[in-house]
Amino acid sequence: MLVSLVAFYSYSNGQSPTIVGNVTDSTTGEMLTNATVQLMRVKDSVIIRKIISQRNGFVLSRVPAGDYQLLLSYIGYCDTTIFIKLDEKDTLINLGIVHMRNSSGNMMEVVVRSVIPPVIIRNDTIIYNTEAFKTKPNATVAELLKQLPGMEVDREGNVSFQGERVQKIYVDGKEFFLNDPKLATQNLLADMIQKVEAFNDKSQRAKLTGIRDNNPGKAINLRLKADKKKGWLGTLEAGYASEDRYGIKATANHFNGDEFIMATINSNNGGNVQNGSPELLGNKQNNSSLNYRNNFSKKLELTANYAFNNSSSRYEVNSNRETFFTDSSFLQDKQSSNSSGNKDHGFNTSLNYTIDSFNLVNLSASLGLRHGENNGTDNAITDIKRNLVLNHLNNAFTNNQNSSDNKDGSLNISYSHVFRKKGRYLGVSMSSSVNANTGQGKLHSLTRFYNVDGIQTDSLERNQRSNSDAGAKNTGIGINYTEPIGKNQVIDVSWSISNGSGNADRYTYNYNGLTGKYDEADSLASNAFKSTNASQQFSIGYNYFNNKLQYQLGFSLSKSSQQNTIEVGVGEDITQKALNLFPRASFMYTISKQKNLQVSYNGSTNQPSITQLQPVPDYSNPLLVHLGNPGLKQEFSNNLSVNYNYFSPTTVRSFQWAGSLQNTANRIVNATITDARGVQEQRFVNVPGNYTAGTNINFGLPLGKNQQSGAFNSSTRANYVQDVNLVNGEENIKRSWILSQSIGINYHKADKIYAGLQAGINWNRSSYSIQTLKATNFLSQRYSCNLSVEIFQGFFISSDLNLSFTNSQGALAGRNAKAWNATAMKRLFQNKAELKFSVFDILNSNNSFNQNTGDNYIETTEQEVMKRVFILSFMYRFTRVGS
To answer: What are the Cα distances from residue 541, in Å, to 487, 497, 640, 641, 851?
Structure first.
């Protein structure tokens, strides 16, 4: 990697565009050095630049905007002419590989070409011309993004750019997908997209004042082709699989200028059957969504979406846990089965009204309705290991049944005013949210306890019913003002106030054998709890920015109070007040159009949740009882981060490095007390001494000289974590080193062959101060490869193999897994349809196995998954688009 980094080609230029490229033999691909490159202005045929190409290609810098002909000549090759149009906003035009054809004796032949630059940098935006990146017929936007340098799409469809998750996707500059960017990448076709623009997203204040955000997040804008902005686009998919599995999906998209409508319907009983990705045996899902956006006028813009989900799942899990203490360890083997069902309705909307060029109003609202059912059964056996001797300690049977109804809503209104004086800005925002949850629970557990001779000494049975009623309300007002105080200097001032309240009432009743009813109140497990809080925050900061440098210095002063009241039950009312100072500083330096460096520091607080505050024991696991603590204080974190980004359109190489350090005071952790019978009680407490340090390096480059044939990506992560918790009143310091390395290679050729290879290694070492001899070393490896080949016109075969290896750890076993899948697919009806036959898990050896570490334990879990499945599916795309 170091050699590649040193070999990076970088440069910087002024505001005028730069043209770069490489000259090669069209037959052999050999780099042609000493080729003559001339740039001629079209309007007067004047040659304004003339250079000789080198091994690294050619660079024509500081070229004024206009229309040009690029003339390339080389002895023994046909002269080549390329037409180029430069915009004033362009900063770099990458022509990629320019192939010159051998003249074969005809020295007078001239080849005239129109070359599409694969990548252009325009200000802070990287623009990909999709015509330069080949995709299969009917490929989705997600398949297109996988081929773009600097872009990654994981197996769940999440998109990352330069190592950072993309949070928003726009269509023609308009925000459309409020909740799920994957709706755009998985349902729009690559053929519809003319350009993909990747950039740092901006807040409303940043757009209006020019003051950059510290952590803006990544965004993508999809520019539609001119002839794809009006019409219909949709898919119909159906699949049937062995094990009596099915999947049906339909999508429809309507475009008409600024009006955009998307609708989806999906029904299956085994995951994504129609695309060969089945899931658990017991999964069922019926969901639908409707998304709408429109500009009703130049001033009024509406975006809205509605989603419905009706799903159920069933799964079984086997887990093994080793828990460490000073003089002994617990070894627990547990089998769990769970079935659940959920019905969700969600609605979101955003309305923008531009009063005039100085005033903007935004209104956003959301509403959610959810109903859930859950039934879980656990059988756990625990042994104690002391002085190499193993004795049976306890076993427990537990059945939990719960149902809940949840309602939540939010309303946010913001007003922005830009003054005539550049940099002067006023923003006012108001927010309100409400949440209400009611639930009913049934618990039946039987726990048996044993002595060292294996004889039962005691038992504990719980047969209870409970009712819960919880809710929360929050309101807030914020004001933000910026004032320029000189050239490139701005003062920002903000003030906010918020008030919130929440209640959590829980009433538990034991079964009464005399009456045959659940009418015996459990005072320990019943409680009516209320919490109110209020806070005010004042912030002031100094900002300096120019084309290359921006830094910010400031602080926030926060005053907060919290009142925790126990209206029913045991405990004392607690009132807390806090005064906090939050310093903040950031430094952003644009080294060149391809490189930037950012350093930032800020402080933040985290309030304990009402679940962490309510002092009611949770007996859903009779061997691990959780208890809230109304005396909890808020956490305070110090965060330092450093980020360096490099992306070169000339070599299509990228490099990102990020480092971070976080320290948390009064962190909320578990304090665990274990009695002689093996029952653990965990109570939330505040402790100092917790911090995390980490670094992340991402590196990408194209394969070979042809920048559009594939790419190599590498990601390296290293973290050190120190967690402090309490075990039987003793401080336990857990120190963890976490290292991971992953690489990925994708290759595609002439729309016929697509191949990929991924590999990842993760190592986790943890030590515990309460038992220094119990240091753990986890090592897991994952490898996968995939290949798709077009055998003849419209007939494809594809296959993928996934391998995972996990080592054993202490008394816990490791596990290896392999899953081999294959598909044969034929395109029909002029590439509008696909008939597909797939085999999932050919070797019938798929499994789901994981290892993890906790406060003072290590654990492995293995979940039931679907084995070998045969799938037949059909997909049809319908389109009717026009200009």
So the answer is: 16, 18, 18, 19, 45
Distances (CA, A) of 342 to 283, 313, 882: 12, 9, 41
**Of the ranges 61-65, 360-364, 470-474, 533-537, which one carries the lowest mean pLDDT score?**
61-65
Q: Cα–Cα distance between 141 and 184 in angstroms, integer? A: 7
Give the span between the Cα atoms of 388 and 310, in whole angstroms: 51
Q: Outline where 590-692 has alpha helix (H).
A: 610-613
Q: With a cut of 60, say whether residue 315 has pLDDT above it.
A: yes
List of E strands, 387-455: 389-418, 425-450
> How big is the CA angle at 362 (ends 356 and 367), to the nearest 5 degrees?
155
Distance CA 189, CA 177 (A): 16
What CA–CA distance (Å, rounded) separates 719 from 765? 11
* CB neighbours of residue 772 within 10 Å: 8
Q: What is the per-residue pLDDT across 482-508, written as a single tens digit (0 to 9) for each? A: 999 988 899 999 999 999 999 999 999
CA 438, distance to chain mean position in Å, is 31
Q: Compute the average pLDDT of residues 528-542.
A: 93
- Which stretches of 607-751 are assigned E, i.e. beta strand? 624-627, 635-648, 653-665, 667-674, 680-687, 690-702, 710-727, 730-749
- Cα–Cα distances (Å) from 848 to 375, 710, 814, 862, in that order, read 22, 31, 12, 5
The pair of structure tokens assigned to 840 is 């999932």
